[in-house]
Each structure stands twice: as structure tokens, then as C-alpha cells.
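[job 4471] stage=fold_predict status=RUNNING
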Amino acid sequence: MGKGVSGIIVAGGKSSRFGSPKAFAEKDGIPFYQYTIAAMEPLVESIVLVSSSELITKFTSEDTSCKIITDNPAIAGLGPLAGIYSGMEHLTSEWYLISPIDTPFINTRTYEILLDHIGAGKEAIVPIVNGRLEPLISIFHCSIKEKMKEQLRCNMLAPRQLFQNSQVAYVEFDDDNPFRNINYQEDLERYIKTKEGGS
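[job 4471] inference complete, writing C-alpha cells
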């Protein structure tokens, strides 16, 4: 639907805290990454999922509606910005919806709200959720790509550093549920117990 809009899902983390690849953990019988695809699909022309070389064969054996790639070898292993940059290299768009792999509560409406804030001169649209910056569920303009390249070259890997040198629109959200990530098995178990308890 969105002209000049693509999606980038970053799935290259080691999931060391979770204990197994979070992308294939399930909420209500559906793998985490499928929730992100479903949230983005109505708004984008195409989606790329950037994974590690260790996981790419697992992804390619799954039924996915997006292209699966690995990081550009020159920046492999340099964190989320490397994944986002690699995705931008692979897909040519004006705007990119960004998401990590571990937010199975994300929804299309969240991205619609962010898209409402795109405008001339803006290089990123970034949520602030109850006072907390959420840099990896955001929207990047193609013009930020060269800044990312230079930052990665200098081993400056924090998204906050990128935003300090860019034109960013910050959007405040009160509802933190779409941004809730699952870092530990206990987080998933807590969700399951809450659901079973009906609260």
C-alpha cells in the first residue's frame, strides 16, 4: 500500500538471554517473526529479514513471505544498525519500517501512527514509550543510510548516536504493549500464565 515504503526485520541476535533463537519461539502457536511480518505487510511493498548465517537455513526452510538475507560481510556482527544498513542495501525505498525479531505484540496501527509523522527533512521517526526511547521499532528515511555507514565504520554502534546527528521526529506513546519484547523464557511464560488466568 505504502509507495516507497519497505520493511526491515532485524533477527541477527544470538538470543543468549532467551536460551534459543527467539525468532522461532511462539506466541499462541505463531513464531514471533510472523507477527512482525503481519504488522508490516499492509503498509509496505516488500520486507527483508536480516539474520545470522547460523539461522538463515532455518528461516529459508520456513514458509515466509519475505526475503531472508545476512549482514553485509564487512559489517557482520556489529549489532542492529548493521542489520538495518544491510537491509537498506538490499531494498531500495524512500522509507523503511524497522523492527527487531522479539516483539510479538507489534501491530500495524503502531506503524501507521509513526508514518503519520513522516515529512520533508525527517531522517527517522522514533517512538518514545512512557519516557523510554524505542529505537528499533521506528521508521528510517533512505537519507540516513550514509550516516549509518560512517558510524559503523567508526564502530559507533548505538542508535542514539545516530539520532543525535540526524533530523528525528520523536512520537510519544502511552501504551507500551506493542513495544513489549521477550528477552527471557520467563517473559513468555508470564504472558502465557496471564492469558490463561484471563487477566
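[job 4471] summary: Residues 39 and 107 are 5 Å apart (CA to CA).
[job 4471] exit 0
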